[in-house]
Amino acid sequence: MIIAVDGPAASGKGTLARKLAQYLGLAYLDTGAIYRTIALTVIEANGDPHDERTSLEAAKAYHRQKYPDHALRTEKVSKASSIVAAHPKVRAEVIGIQRKVAMTPPGAVLDGRDIGTVVCPEADMKFFVTASPEERARRRFKELKARGEFADHASILREIVLRDERDRTRPVAPLRPAADAYLLDTTSLDIEATFQAARRLVDGHLPGAASHKGGP
Ligand code: CDP
């Protein structure tokens, strides 16, 4: 079983995808973390994320858990990740890693930008999670503050809007909802309300799925 959860920056898709994976007994893959790892590899080598060849070398050297989560989630890495993710050769390299996880029984919930459109167009169910840019900036601000990082709401909002724009307008695998995705606007929903809304859709769309106890 494959569930695709796509959406713009800080929309809550990662939290929802993790909860859905637990509910359905599936593996969870944060595909953004792959692009973030590639970006940080380039940054650490003093490379330029705009350079496709350098980014491709970093993608080829990718391995999971190379960096701790907090190192991947800085604003500098966020920006660089969307620059490396625009290179077609980098995306071609990364798609194999993602499909391997998706195809491993009993299946997985994957969150990203192009899961429902490009990586797993055959997914059993697709979500496109959104929230207003202001609300998304507020959430990212809280997240960074909680980790003790310097955070400025206005610059976070600016970076989120710019990153979404870059992700939406790139020629390869742009951020957009699949035609058959369920749209979930979480602007006024908290984590639990978002999960309950998605759970109702899952129960309606995939009856009996939650009793499937494969486990990751
Ligand atoms: O957590 P947040 O939504 O801020 O970002 P993320 O999901 O970790 O993704 C970081 C960046 O990786 C995005 O801005 C995209 O440019 C890129 N990405 C992508 O192109 N395709 C994916 N399937 C996942 C992430």
What distinguishing features does this structure have?
single chain; 216 residues; alpha/beta; 10 helices; binds cytidine-5'-diphosphate
Largest sheet report: 5 strands, parallel
> Which ligands, by name, code or SMILES, are bound?
cytidine-5'-diphosphate
Helix share bin: 40-55%
Class from helix and strand fractions? alpha/beta
Going across the biggest sheet, name each strand in turn: 2-3-1-4-5
* Poorly predicted residue ranges: none
Q: Secondary-structure element order, as H and E?
A: EHEHHHHHEHEHHEH
Radius of gyration: 17 Å
Count of alpha and pi helical runs: 10
How large is the share of residues in beta strands? 5-15%
DSSP E strands, number: 5
The averaged pLDDT comes out at 94
- Apparent shape: globular
Euclidean distance between termini CA atoms? 12 Å
List the helices and strands and how they pair.
Elements: E1 2-6, H1 13-24, E2 27-30, H2 31-44, H3 52-60, H4 69-72, H5 75-84, H6 88-103, E3 108-112, H7 115-119, E4 125-130, H8 133-146, H9 153-169, E5 182-185, H10 191-205
Parallel strand pairs: 1-3, 1-4, 2-3, 4-5
Helix pairs in contact: 1-10, 2-3, 2-5, 3-6, 5-9, 8-9
This protein binds cytidine-5'-diphosphate.
Explain this structure.
There is one protein chain. The longest helix has 17 residues, at 153-169. This protein starts with a strand and ends in an 11-residue tail after the last helix. The mean pLDDT is 94. By secondary structure, it is α/β, with parallel strands linked by helices. A 5-stranded parallel beta sheet has the order 2-3-1-4-5, with helices on both faces. It has helices at 13-24, 31-44, 52-60, 69-72, 75-84, 88-103, 115-119, 133-146, 153-169, 191-205; strands at 2-6, 27-30, 108-112, 125-130, 182-185. Cytidine-5'-diphosphate (CDP) binds at residues 9-10, 14, 31-32, 35-36, 78, 81-82, 85, 112-115, 163, 167. Residues 9-10, 14, 31-32, 35-36, 78, 81-82, 85, 112-115, 163, 167 line the site of cytidine-5'-diphosphate (CDP).
